[in-house]
Each structure stands twice: as C-alpha cells, then as structure tokens.
Amino acid sequence: MTDSRSGSDPLAELDRGARLRVRILGLAAALLMAVLLVAAQGALRQPLFDLFHRYSPAPDSTPRVQVVVVDAASLEAVGGWPWSRYTMARLTEQIAARGAVAIGYDFLFAEADRQTPDDFARIYPELSAAAAGEVAALPSMDAVFARVIGRAPVVLARAGVEAGSYDRREDGSAMPAPAALPPDVRFTGPVPDAIPRYASVVANLDILDGAALGHGLANGPPDPDGVIRRVPLLGRPGGVLTPSLALELVRVAEGENTVRLEGDRSGLRAVRIGPHRVPVDAGGRVELRLAVAPSDNTPGAQKVSQRERVPYRTVSAVNLLRQGGAADAFRDSIVLVGLTAAGTSDVVTTPRDTETYGVFVQAQAVDAILRGSALQRPVWAPVVEWGVGLTLVLLAWTGVTRAPMALVATGAFVEIAAAFGGSWLAFQNNLLIDPYPMLVPGAATSAVMVSLLFVEGRRVQAGLRSALEEERLIAAKISTELAVAAEIQSGMLVPRGELARVSDAVEIDAVLEPARSVGGDLYDAFRFDDGRVCFLVGDVTGKGVPASLFMALAKALSRSFLVRQNTPLEAAVAGINAELSRDNGQAMAVSLLVGVLHLDGRLDLCSAGHENPLVVAPDGQVREIRLRGGPPLCVVDDFPYAVESHSLAPGETLVAFTDGLTEAQAPDGTLFSRDQALDAISEAARAPTLRETVDAIISRVRAFEAGGEPSDDLTILALRLKGSAGGP
C-alpha cells in the first residue's frame, strides 16, 4: 500500500520529490534559525528581560539598606560641592551615631580639602604673626575627617582606571598603585582571568584611605548599549584583587574577613561572604533584579504612587546635618552616601529607568547580596530551552502536515503563551530563561512546511488543470503587465500631491484618468529658476498600449525641450515636433497645449491642435481663450508654432483639458455638450480648493456617463495664482 493517498495528509498528495523537499527544508529552516540564535548571543532575549524589569520590579528591598543623598536642598543649605571635609566629618558622625554598621561613600576624596589652615593664613596677611601661627598650627580638615573615619565603620570608594583613560596622568603614565588592602580581607578560591583588570586606580588621600575600615571599587561600566544591568563585585586594579564597594560594605557590616570565590579558572559562578551567596557571571558581575525607580523622599517633596515609591529609605544630608531624625534611624543599616543634585549627580540608565542615580544602583547591588535577589541564568537553562525547542521542532515536523490549520494556529498560540509565560514566571523567581530557542526553530519549521505545502499543492493543482490554468495565467500576465504599465505611466506624471509644491506662488492641481488600464493623455508642471511656472496638457491619438507608449515618449521629450535654458517656447515646441516626427512609423499624432505663467499674471500659450483652455472668473463666469495654434504634432514636420500672450488675473482659474471632457458619452450615446462643460466648470470653480474643483469636474463627467465605459482618456489641469483676494 505504498501508493495509497490520505485525504488528511497533504503530503500524501505530493510526489516523492516534493515530500522530500518539504521534510528537508522544514528541518533546514529550524537549523538555520538555531544557528542565527546562537550567533545573536542573546540579543533577542535582552530586550525581553528589560521589558520584564519595567513591568515586574523587584519586591520590597531589605530595610538594612538606606541612602543619604546630597541633593539640591543640601547644596542650598550648606553650599556648593565639594563640601569641606569638616562638613563631611559632621555628616559621618551623624550617620554613625544613629547606628549604621557600614557607611559607604559613592564618590572619592582624591584631592586635599580646599579649606586648610595654611591656606587661610596665607589668604589673610592682615593676621598678626602670632594669630597666623595659631591658625597654621590647627589640624587640617582632612586630618579631622580622617579621625572621624577612623572611629566609624566607613568604606571608601576607589575607581579602576582603564589603559588610555582620561583619569591617567597627562604624561600617559599610570596612577600610583593602590595602597594594600586591610590585612583582614582574604580571598579564597580561583581567580579567573575573566575578572576585570585595570591598569591603575584612582584612590583617596592617603590620610583618609589609611583611616578607613574598608575600600571598594565603585566601577559599574554599562553594557555596549549604555544601559547598566550588571555590577562587578570584583576587580583587579594594579593586579590587586579588590572587592566592589557593595561587596566591601556587606563584608564590613557582617564583620567577615573572608570572601570565597566559587568557580574555576575559566570563570566564576558565585561569590560567598558569610551566609550570603551571590550568583555572578564568569567575570564576577552580579545581574540586578531592579526595584522601582528612586524618587525624592525629602520633606515637602511631591507624593508618588505606590508603583513609583523609593525602594530604599532616602534621607537628605541637610536633615542629618541639622541633627534631624530619630537616634536609631540607621540602626543595623548599611548606609550609602551619594550625589543627586543637578550638576553633581552620577546619572545612569538602567533597563527600568532612563535616568537614575549611581548611588541607587550601588544600593541595589548591596540589596542583591544581602537578600540573594540577583538574577541568574542557571547552567541548565540552555539544556531546557533547546530541549523544548527540539521537541517542538519534531512535533511540527510530524504533525503540522496532518493537523487542520485551525489546530495548528491554536497550538502555536498556546506554545507562544506558555514559553513567554514561563519566562515571566522564571523572572519572578530571579531566573533568566530565554523563550526564543523554544519557539523560533519550531515556528520556522512550521512556517516553511506550510508554505511549501501550499506551493507544492498549487503545483499539483496546476498539473491537474493545466489547460485552464494556462489560460488564466496568460490573462493574469496580461492584466499584471497592464497594471505595471499603468503604474509606470502614472509614475511618469507629477504626483497630485507634489503639484502643490511646484511653486509657492501658483496653485496647481491635475488628474488623469485613462479610459483603459493605460492611455495616451499626459500633463506636466514645473517651475523655472526665475519663478515662472510651465505647464502642459496633451492627448495622443488612439487609446491603450500604443497610445501609452507614444505618450511616454512625448512626455519625456516635452520636459527635455522645455527645461532647456534660453530656449524660446515656440522653439521648444518646434523641437518636440521634430523629434516626435522622426521614425514615427505608426503615423501617430499628439495634440499639445503648453503654457508659461509669469508671476505678474502674464500667460504665454502655444497650442498644437489642442482644445482651447477656459478661464473662470471669481464670479463664476467662464470665458474661452481662443488660440490660433497649429496642427497636432507629427502632422506637419516644420510647422512654425507661435506663442500667444494672454493674462490670468488674480482670482481667475485656468482650466485645461483633453477631449475626454467634450466627448464624454451617456449610455444612450449623447455627448457631453459644450454648455454642459461650461456649466460644470463654472459650478466646480466655486469649491474652496483647487483640488475640489478638479474633483467636481470629473464627478460631473462620470455622473453624465452613468457608469458606462469612458469613450476616451480624461485629463483636467487647473491653476491659479495664490494669495489673490476675492478668489473662489
């Protein structure tokens, strides 16, 4: 029964070669999509995960993380940034006195304080020698700040410097190597090469660095698209393995001495500090599950919605300096101090916020360590994703040809919903699962197989009905060619919308409606460099394809001769006549009306056997511009066509047309009379715009024809000077 045919299996209706093509190309599509997904390296899933960040923020953060901000109110009360180290010492004392277990500064103190006693003595030479000596003997503000740092659990930031960075010295040499980390910081485990290296480091003043309880790198470079999604927990400035600011804050707060690294020489998997295990990528970066956008939480600030609330308790520095707040406000808390005032803030972009502050990113990194809320892509994720994808490919390969299309569509919808829904649920549990490997290969298999089944099915049907289909294909080919020819022909004309931009001083509109798919009418309008507007309307003898071909030639030659500089209008028309008459074996002729409208209203016209144009006054009166003209082009080779000058007054509308207007026929054979044409143009000219005027004339003609086949091509071109008072 190898030759049996099944009505439920479209493959059974195909020959062996077609069945093989469908099967092979279906699998090839899946393989191609898989290769492209691997080559994309997650470029598709990253925008999806960013979308999850925006619509699924992290749950409430730990109350142990708080932020002190140097905001606009602080600068207004204390003064411009940077503040005196005496002010920073007071701020540190206030934070420490309220129970903070770790205080981290998200900025550096790389330069000496500007308000030193020696400088004060030099600035005021009026001081007596004794007074100057007493002032100079006072301790520096850096020393005062260092003593306060030494009594508080302070962690100072450092910044790793890349080779070639602007933070290197002007002579290109590296910054001095960082001071040794405190001896109680110890790393265990592998140190892979993937951990970022820095050529040097920007550190704080030695007097401050030596007093601090901890030091951490504040580096947090964005991804190539400028968005910060990950924060490094480790770095190696000057070859020294150093914790990040967030990791060091947790170490100091927890009183730990050891940071354990999990992984191997090829890369890390996690970082452990005390009871906290943080999943990281190979280079030690933690991917943040971002909380809602930070907002101003200072007194008097505008209230925000629950969705926009601050994820970390935020306190203005000026409130602390005024000794405001509860005595245990920071009890058992890790406090970060950062800048949020305009002109001083560290503004960054995250998947959730187009603009936020770097100190809040550091706070979220601390929170991720404390709560273990970092995002991770588990090692089994690719196995699950590609396993599901392979299963769906096989399901599509075997079932899509047998199942009804409604069932296939329903199944596709269920698969898409399940894959994206599963990825969403995984994100809620801090897992990054990519739905695209599950869906794309199977979708490619289904789409290719369904398309090929359709194509092959059409081929089979064509074989069974070859004679009938051949006739239909011939008819369709002719129809398509006529349609293409009509598009080409209409494309040679100035589009109706472009006519309004031909001249700022002249309003122009035109419509050409062929009696068949293609026709022999033509029109054109363009502006000379001196502002004059040239227009023309023509009609080739005959209809259909021959007329359209000759029309294309006439249109091209007319534009070519008329745009030539310093060529009189009569010479241009004579040149057109000569070129069209050359090798005119079909003895076709063209009636042509060419006009040049000057901006002062002067109108130069040259007629070659064409209908006389009409002028409509503002009151609706229609007059005919009678032209002597000459025979149509290609009738007399060297006829001397003359230019006749007239004028177009402000408010008057010039209407040029082909005999499709005057030879329109009703179903009973009655012609559209001259009086009817004048009445139609007079009534249409009352329309508020020139476009509506032209449309009204054509509608009047089509209403007269009452649905009958047009007897000839119809072209209407109208123009008038803009800005004329009292115009229609």
Can you characterise this structure?
The chain is α/β, with parallel strands linked by helices and 728 residues long. The strands form seven sheets. Strands 1, 2, 3, 6, 7, 15 and 16 form a seven-stranded mixed beta sheet that branches. A five-stranded antiparallel beta sheet has the order 19-28-27-24-25. Helix 1 packs antiparallel against helix 14 (436-464), helix 12 packs parallel to helix 14 (436-464) and helix 20 packs antiparallel against helix 21. It contains 21 helices and 28 strands.
What's a concise summary of this model?
With 728 residues, this protein is α/β, with parallel strands linked by helices. 39% of the residues lie in helices and 19% in strands.
Per DSSP, the total helix count is: 21
Class by helix and strand content? alpha/beta
What spatial form do the alpha-carbon principal axes imply?
Answer: elongated
Percentage beta strand: 15-25%
What is the mean pLDDT?
83
Kindly report how far apart the N and C termini lie. 83 Å
Radius of gyration: 42 Å
Low-confidence stretches: 1-7, 177-181, 295-309, 724-728
Largest β-sheet summary: 7 strands, mixed
- Report helical residue fraction: 25-40%
| Total number of domains | 3
How many beta-strand elements? 28
What are the defining features of this structure?
disordered N terminus, Phosphatase 2c, domain 1, 728 residues, 28 strands, single chain, 7-stranded mixed beta sheet, 3 domains
Layout: helices, strands, pairs:
Elements: H1 16-40, H2 45-55, E1 65-70, H3 72-78, H4 85-97, E2 100-105, H5 117-123, H6 129-137, H7 141-151, E3 154-161, E4 186-188, E5 197-198, E6 200-202, H8 206-209, E7 214-217, E8 230-232, E9 234-237, E10 242-243, H9 245-254, E11 258-264, E12 267-273, E13 276-279, E14 285-287, E15 313-316, H10 317-321, E16 333-339, E17 347-348, E18 356-357, H11 358-371, H12 381-399, H13 405-428, H14 436-464, H15 466-492, H16 496-499, E19 506-513, E20 521-527, E21 533-540, H17 544-562, H18 569-581, E22 590-597, E23 602-608, E24 614-616, E25 622-624, E26 644-647, E27 653-657, H19 659-662, H20 674-684, H21 690-705, E28 714-721
Parallel strand pairs: 1-15, 1-16, 2-3, 2-16, 3-7, 4-11, 5-9
Antiparallel strand pairs: 3-6, 8-14, 9-10, 11-12, 12-13, 17-18, 19-28, 20-21, 21-22, 22-23, 23-26, 24-25, 24-27, 27-28
Helix pairs in contact: 1-14, 4-7, 5-6, 9-11, 12-14, 13-14, 15-17, 17-18, 20-21
